[in-house]
Amino acid sequence: MALPNSATITHHNNGSLYASPLTPPTLSHSSSLRLSNCRFSCSLHDHYRLRSRSSRSSPRFKGLRVRSCSVAREPLKVMISGAPASGKGTQCELIVQKFGLVHVSTGDLLRAEVSSGTEIGNKTKEFMNAGQLVPDEIVTAMVTSRLSRQDAKEKGWLLDGYPRTSSQAESLERLNIRPYIYIVLEVPDEILIDRCVGRRLDPVTGKIYHIKNFPPETEEIKARLITRPDDTEEKVKFRLKTYKQNAEAISSTYMDIMKKLDGNRQKDIVFEEVSSLLVQTEESKVEMAKLEKLKAASDVLSKVASSRQDNWRGIPTRLNNIPHSREIRNYFYDDILQATERAITNGRTRLKVEINIPELNPEMDVYRIGTLMELVRVLALSFADDGKRVKVCVQGSMGEGALAGMPLQLAGTRKILEFMDWGDHGALGTFISIGSIGANDVDEQDDVFILVAPQNAVGNCIIDDLRAMTDAAGSRPVVLVNPRLKDLPGSSGIMQTMGRDKRLEYAASFENCYFFRLLYYAGTQYPIMGALRMSYPYRYELYKRVDEPSGEKYVILATFTEKPNGEQINDAFEGKSRKQERKTSGFWGFLSGIL
After folding, report:
1. pLDDT tens-digit profile of 523-560?
2. Which element (helix H / strand E) includes 186?
3. What's the pLDDT score for residue 306?
4. What does the alpha-carbon distance between residue 261 and residue 269 come to, in Å, rounded to a whole number?
5. Burial of 299 (0-12, 13-18, 19+ CB in 10 A)
6. In whole angstroms, what is the distance from residue 276 CA to residue 316 CA?
7. Are 360 and 372 in contact (CB under 8 A)?
8. What confidence category does residue 100 fall into, taking pLDDT thresholds of 50, 70 and 90?
9. 402 exposed, middle or buried (CB, 10 Å; 0-12, 13-18, 19+)?
10. Which residue stretches of 446-554 are H helix?
């Protein structure tokens, strides 16, 4: 597999060195992590503090903020067509009642323009009085004018019986007026002829009856009914012929969105199918809008990352020097923050951050709870700065009675969070709140959940509480910071087997948005041999640490689409091809099993 061109990095005079091809950290002034009676020897940049909405400026991705992926429903745009007496008018009434669309009928528009005495109306009247068809350009102008009104833009529109000719359809296409769906009601000719010939008009109320299918309510109404001049069998047949010619002419324009329905059924049955199609169309447009929004966000992220790639300094060195320098800690805070923002912007909701630098590795005696708390604060304040309400959660005491307790790594963390310095703008208690892991701590106003090192303990499992919480959170992002969800022995000293597969499957459902692990000889924690890093949405990058007279540097060995296992890492360090058979033993066995 080809490796990146920039494999070596130069050493900086200040003792820090970097190597990797992704996004650079940004450094600024620092402020301390304060507790009531003590001070941690770690720091936090001012740009992570909550800033006022009017004056904030971000030294990170300028103009890029974490946003919800929810998309407002776009108003429907519908065309409906059908031969005379196909039931089109009835379906239009039902559609308007249920979906609230603006009904646009060319007949109604023509009559309204004529009665209003407008310029278009006067021209229309001249053609009608002369017994001529109204020119397409006049009808199209009326239709476009009506569709451009605010109510049609906000509610959506239902275009009834228009366009009727290919030239009219082409005119609408040129004006970028196109429906999301084109519904055609199909009814056999003999049924249509029967409907038209048997149709009667009440000249007093304008109501339409049918002598067989919909007779008048009283003899009085029946006596005054008339037959419309165009409802004779001869004229109906001519109109059907004209309709079919026109329908065939415009079908090619709307073939990809055309839905043909059997109109020779009860109106309620037909409308049930019409309604189902419109609901599906609404939902598909929402999904398309979401995808377009996510794609646009991805494009922005890619451009930003690409533009800054050449200036990025990469992984800091001297990571075995304890305590870590302020620059090292802030590098990782910023690196994790950017990866998490990218993942949430792209719609990911079940995320985990895994990082085991010495100060964040509970298996090392230099582990510092303050560094973990500071990382959590960086994430929480950044999301709060974007107007999100953040719930920071720490698991409570597990077990009952004499067996009650919690993992040593988390002891006192809730108090630390409560007494931390959360900035000068009242973030804690407004945009940020502190809770426990469980469904009861999921409130409706919460937007993002950050869970601090959730982990199982001997005899107790956090998975059930965690699952209940994510179920209650729904589509809202849940970020696990350094989770430890592997199964541990029960209080009896043996592994808990009941439901183990389900627990492991649930734990694996969280996607890494950030991963960083130092690589050592097996059984040791010195010297550092290399590092494995992944920052969403990029690949896993494997680095080898090299000592030179001028100082240490990192050389990138390989990249992986998925987290590599120990064998793959050993092969990369030995310089083997991915396809080359690996020996059963070797000098680089120190890496086996670390992942």
Report:
1. 777 788 899 999 999 999 999 988 888 778 888 899 99
2. strand 181-186
3. 52
4. 11
5. exposed
6. 57
7. yes
8. very high
9. exposed
10. 463-473, 500-507
**Smallest Cα–Cα separation from 469: which of 380, 349, 348?**
349
How much is the pLDDT for 496? 56
Task: Please state the three-class secondary structure of 226-267 as a single string.
Answer: ECCCCCCHHHHHHHHHHHHHHHHHHHCCCHHHEEEEECCCCH
pLDDT at 303: 58
Angle between helices 326-345 and 369-385 (to 10 degrees): 40
CB 500 within 8 A of CB 487: yes
CB-hemisphere CA count at 13 Å for 403?
Answer: 10
* 30-34 and 39-45 strand pairing: antiparallel
Q: Note whether 142 and 175 are within 8 A (CB).
A: no
CA 519 to CA 320: how far, in whole Å?
Answer: 12
Structure tokens at 318: 């001297």
3-class secondary structure, 511:
strand
Distance of alpha carbon 376 from alpha carbon 340, whole angstroms: 12
Residue pair 184/261 in contact by the 8 Å Cβ criterion:
yes
Residue range 381-408, pLDDT digits in tens: 999 888 889 999 988 765 454 445 556 5
405-441 pLDDT, tens digit each: 556 566 677 888 888 888 767 788 888 999 989 899 9
Intra-chain end-to-end CA distance of the chain, in Å = 22
What confidence tier does 470 reach under pLDDT thresholds 50, 70, 90? Answer: very high
Report pLDDT for 218: 92
Output the CA torsion sign for 160, 166, 171, 173. Answer: positive
Q: What is the dihedral of CA 25, 31, 33, 36, to 10 degrees?
A: -170
Integer Rg of the chain from CA: 35
